[in-house]
Amino acid sequence: MARVVRMFKAFKTHWKKTTVGVCLLTWGGNWLYGKHCDNLLRRAACQEAQVFGNQLIPSNMQVKKATVFLNPAACKGKARNLFEKNAAPILHLSGLDITIVKTDYEGQAKKLLELMENTDLIIIAGGDGTVQEVITGLLRRADEATFSKIPIGFIPLGKTSTLSQTLYPGSLNQVQRIADATLAILKGETIPLDVLQIKGEKEQPVFAVTGLRWGSYRDAGVKVSKYWYLGPLKTKAAHFFNTLKEWPQKHQASLTYLGPTKRPPEEPEEKPSRPSLYVRIYRRLSLYWASPQKEIPHEATLEAWEEMQLSTIELSITTQNRQLDLTRTEDSMNICIEPDTVSKGDFINRGSQKMCDPQLCPEGSQCVQASRCILQLPEGTEGSFGIDSEEYEAMPVEVKLLPRKLEFFCDPRRREQMLQPAVQ
Question: What's the rounded mean pLDDT across residues 242-247?
């Protein structure tokens, strides 16, 4: 009892030190418990990958080759450590023949894709910018028709990993997200994703799986990191200082677009068997002796282009990959034209929302669905486009939808969710 009394007296005398000590012990205990949980997640993922590695391969089959494009600069330079700690052990235990290619500077992945030899899998380890570079290099190849059929895996390591929201279940734990993405590659389930081909007047085309943004929200969002010293107020501060410029901020342009196109029927997986020799001879003779048929000229159908003049605070052209529906019957991209009559208060509040969801199309915006569009900018237009979180100089561009162009590995649970409308 006397000891308890002495402890209470010591606490009363040194209550500040005691409070700080308790807080440090609590924080340290939570940190150690979190590390322990992460190790359990890694162990469980490695055990699941070991099952794939233990599978016997027939003697007439070769080990699958996987090429990993790793951007060490992603996630403020932490991507390499995240990959080696969470994803690399899973890939090596799976039995794949892994080749890791580390990029040293921006744009290197595009050049490396031009020199890449045959591979069975392509794995992108990084953020949105790394994805954009890899698919651009892939689709610029002369033999892109063949290489675009190679399935692609995405391991989210970057600060912005928009594509992971489509491919994998949401998780607040970074180790869990990386492990789920890596295991999804081993499970082999894929979904087709749309791609946007963005071509300027002189430049080579750039390809994107998310979309293009042009406007004040994007410009303010790029400057958020400069106000890091304001902590949680940095986002609102960046948008507030952006309103001190000329207001209202209007972006003038001319937009010409084509409407959605109907999705063609899927090709049968198995080709019909070749007819017998006698059937082929009979068909050739019947074609030879048949009287020639007159060809009926087909009138060329004119494409119904529509044109509109824009005055907007922000324009976005995005794919439907974010809310992917595998049962849809039309192929289109979404064009969101936001009104330029926004108050400064609404601009600041909406800017914070767009930092969490860049594809947010607020009420009052004009939404257009198109399969192809041409964006003409007035002469002397300054500013930049944001193409999959990468910055490009603003210029007149033609945007073309390439529906279901690339196959990406996804979690089987996400694929089932995308097929739910067909069941209902």
Answer: 84
Q: Are strands 397-409 and 306-318 parallel, antiparallel or unpaired?
A: unpaired
What's the CA gap between 253 and 340, in Å, rounded? Answer: 13
Average pLDDT over residues 50-75: 87
Alpha-carbon gap, residue 7 to 409, rounded angstroms:
59
**What is the spatial distance between Cα 6 and Cα 321, in angstroms, rounded to a whole number?**
65
Angle between helices 15-53 and 2-13 (to 10 degrees): 100
Reduce the secondary structure of 364-419 to three states and give it as a string: CCEEEEECEEEEECCCCCCCEEEECCEEEECCCEEEEEEEEEEEEECCHHHHHHHC
**Res 1: pLDDT:** 65
Q: Buried b vs exposed e over 302-334: b needs ≥16 C-beta within 10 Å?
A: eeeeeeeebebbbbbbbbbbbebeeeeeebbbb
Query: Is-contact 392 384, C-beta < 8 A?
Result: yes
Q: Spell out the long-range contacts of 141-147 with Cβ–Cβ below 8 A and sequence spacing 24 or more.
A: 141/113, 141/114, 147/116
Give Dmax (Cα) for the chain.
Answer: 118
Asked if 75 contacts 31 with a C-beta cutoff of 8 angstroms, the reply is no
Q: Which among 54, 42, 151, 153 has a CA at the least distance from the CA of 94?
A: 54
**Per-state percent for the chain, helix, strand, coil, to nearest 5:** 40, 25, 35
Token pair belonging to 39:
């190790």
pLDDT of residue 56: 83
User: Residue 160 and residue 356: Cα distance in Å, rounded?
Assistant: 10
pTM of the model: 0.83
Confidence label for 90 from pLDDT (cuts 50, 70 and 90) = very high
